[in-house]
Amino acid sequence: MKNLYTYLFLLATTFSFAQLSVKPSTTTDNYMYVKGTVLYVGDDITLTKNSNTSIASVYLREESQLIQGRTDASQNAGDGSISLYQEGTTNAYDYNYWASPVSNQGNGGTDGNLQFSVASLSAPVTTLTSNLVNMTTANNGTTTGSSDLNIAQYWIWKYVGTEGSDYANWIHVEDSQNINAGEGFTMKGVNGTDNTTVNGVQNNPGSNQRYDFRGRPNDGLISVPTTSVNESILIGNPYPSAVDLNYFLIENSASFDVDGNIVPSNVNTNCTGGATVARRDAITGIAYFWSSDPSVNSHNITDYVGGYSSYSPNGSCSSAGVFTPPTYYNYNGDGSPVDGSGEEQTGLTEYRRYLPIGQGFMVRATSSVDEDEIYAGENIQFKNTHRNYVTESVSNNSVFERNQNSQSTLNFNNDEGDVIPKIRFNFAFDDDYTRQVALAFDDEATTGVDIARDAYNINSVASDAGFKLNNKNYTIDIRPFDEEDHIPVFLKLTEQKNLAINVHSFENFDTEEVYLHDLENDTYHSIKNDTYYVTLDAGYYLNRYEITFTNDENLDVSDEIAESFTVFQDNNRSVLEVLNPMGIDLKSVTVYDMTGKQVINNLNVGFQNRYTFSTASLAESVYIVKILTKENIVTTKKISVLNRG
């Protein structure tokens, strides 16, 4: 006999417990079934294995999630398990980056979060039961269509590597039980289809493979160590619920005062209903997501086509953040990108405010050192306070990174937080590949490198482009908007390249013009609606180009034109004279009294060198003369009308 605990709760939108214990009675197996809602437990959970071991203790179905409220380390216990689903790519040649929401339940003798193995995954058979996966030494993972799921163990890896590191920093995991809570791992998908349908969803219709994660739910404070300056680390959402990525990134990255000193606390980020957040100096505050072209059916790294997108929370929990899509490249045998190998597309763009269950991603450790030049960074921390009930089906901000069709259109939809004003730029190289970067505007940012705002390019190819910050290449630059600003461009080429540079799009922002200023030639090229084409030799161009919103070249001409006009009031003849020695085409000459009232207005004046206007009807007073050219150059002069005649 099996007894369902939750039939009384199915009509509720949410339900919660201070503590939760699910265990079989003497003669009956028991379980809790949660459908399409959130289960909240304020403290710990104890799950005891059923006599029928195919029956879990708690089922999270149809996008249900589990959230717990502990502030310290997990005290979850028992040898029972929860069961929840997540889907990854079906292609046996492509990686997804994962993190497990559960750990091994063990024998129940040890409390807290334990380790995880991919070998504990299973494929659904019915709403309650699943078949354990088979770990295969073959290169390709497969499914046979009867919930028989074979995962290729060779492609399961973890990663910790220093700046500029190569492929050797990947750590082989295979089917070992050594993936800690909070650590990310790679796993390739499977070929084939599985027609088994549970809760109206097919296990593998040929587009996504569904996995059943069964084990003890991860909970509480979870730490992932950092060990060196600027190292890259593969981590992931460790909980059976969504995680507020903004909150996580901000709390794990330091804030600095005007003198560059770390201010780890008293920073109001609106992450906790207006309460302050004690920030940690662990990472740079930027998340990086891997995606690749699923049409490449090869396990050889030299055939891979993929790259990393960047996500910035813009230092706030109230905004949607800033996302730049990946640029796809091929790779050498050592894992470094091949110059000139990419495709002329930039992948799928999504907002990333909330991490879905199971999502893995890269971060970079802080560059902080102490007075002895010894690494001074802190451990990365996941906390229950970062958790939130956000489902993938109703939010564009919580999307598991499955490998999409490489021709997918850019998706800028957002339903959580404010869209940050921004301009996206495209730098196309030889029609082979395109680097897209984002220039966003926030009055609280600076023009320098801002933690949890500006995104360093961790996947730079030999020939690449971006914004130059601290002499390095950044894919996201967030700064206050200033119409007079000059924003330096980072450009490097290992061989001669044909470049095409333009504005891709505006979001919640517009400006009259955008220029690419060539400092070497002192020429301005409009790129708001046009594309700038140039052929450049190999080399670094770190001081050659900049983005501007005004054309100083035109400003000089405008000043010259504006200063060329002479305005003279001949009070003996009651005549206003305007001299136009450059023969500029004038749109209008207008005269205003000191209250702002228009008293003379002559339109389409023309190209003459001299104009006269009668002022006989004007009262004695001071007036303002406004001259407007066809090119909208404006000059104003003041006159005194006396009318002595």
Q: What key attributes describe this structure?
A:
six-stranded mixed beta sheet; twelve-stranded mixed beta sheet; mainly beta; 2 helices; 645 residues; 3% helix; Immunoglobulin-like
Account of the 3D structure:
This protein has 3 domains: 2-217, no CATH class; 222-550, no CATH class; 554-641, Immunoglobulin-like. Helices cover 3% and strands 41% of the residues. It contains 2 helices and 56 strands. It is elongated, with a radius of gyration of 31 Å. Residues 6-12, 339-348 and 403-416 have low confidence and may be disordered.
Set out the fold topology.
Layout: E1 2-4, E2 14-17, E3 20-22, E4 29-35, E5 38-41, E6 45-47, E7 58-61, E8 65-68, E9 82-89, E10 95-98, E11 102-103, E12 122-124, E13 130-132, E14 134-136, E15 141-143, E16 149-152, E17 157-161, E18 170-172, E19 185-188, E20 190-191, E21 194-198, E22 201-204, E23 208-217, E24 222-224, E25 232-236, E26 242-244, H1 245-251, E27 255-256, E28 262-263, E29 267-272, E30 275-277, E31 287-292, E32 306-312, E33 322-324, E34 354-355, E35 360-364, E36 380-382, E37 387-388, E38 422-429, E39 433-441, E40 455-456, E41 464-469, E42 472-479, E43 486-493, E44 497-507, E45 515-518, E46 523-526, E47 532-536, E48 539-540, E49 545-548, H2 552-564, E50 566-570, E51 575-579, E52 586-593, E53 598-606, E54 610-614, E55 621-629, E56 634-641
Parallel strand pairs: 1-4, 2-5, 3-6, 4-7, 5-8, 7-9, 14-16, 15-20, 39-42
Antiparallel strand pairs: 9-23, 10-19, 11-23, 12-13, 15-16, 17-18, 17-25, 21-22, 24-36, 25-35, 26-34, 26-37, 27-28, 29-30, 31-32, 32-33, 38-39, 38-44, 40-42, 41-42, 41-43, 43-48, 43-49, 44-47, 45-46, 45-49, 50-51, 51-54, 52-53, 52-55, 55-56
